[in-house]
Amino acid sequence: MSIMKSVKKIPGGLMIVPLLLGCIFNTFFPEFFTYFNGTFTTHLWKTGAMPILAVFLFCNGTTINFKEAGVTVYKGCVLTAVKVIVGMLCGLAVAAFFGEAGVMGVAPIAIIAALANSNGGIYAALAGEYGKATDVGAVSILAINDGPFFTMLALGAVGYDVPI
Fold this sequence. Notes:
Layout: H1 3-8, H2 13-28, H3 40-46, H4 49-62, H5 69-98, H6 108-116, H7 120-130, H8 133-137, H9 139-142, H10 149-157
Helix pairs in contact: 2-7, 5-6, 6-10
GO molecular function, one term: 2-keto-3-deoxygluconate:proton symporter activity
Keywords: Cell membrane, Membrane, Sugar transport, Symport, Transmembrane, Transmembrane helix, Transport
InterPro entries: 2keto-3dGluconate_permease
């Protein structure tokens, strides 16, 4: 059996398996990249998240046909809007009914963050394996909710006091 078939048996394996291999490698050989200090290898793989993210988004963008760009933008906007709106409504409902303490110790900020945020890498891997090219291209729009932006926007809009 080939390595690719084994990796594809795991849901999201194209993303998870290399990530776990990197974690294991860096755990047992943490000084390995010191041999490459100041080289392109260090800046790309050890300290440079931005270059690899740029390559990731560029490669995703090249998979779609220009004629299908409208469908990609539509899918990305709809998925982002629905995910953010549902997350905000659930979190704000918990805040309204239970206050800042939340439900069973889970604060509204955690609920909004969990429901409104996503992992673009896992989405791209699963969409690439099971979806169409327009689904994979939508990751560029979905990437806007990978951070705390919408969570802070929702909580700030309703006057929630977030300690810094």
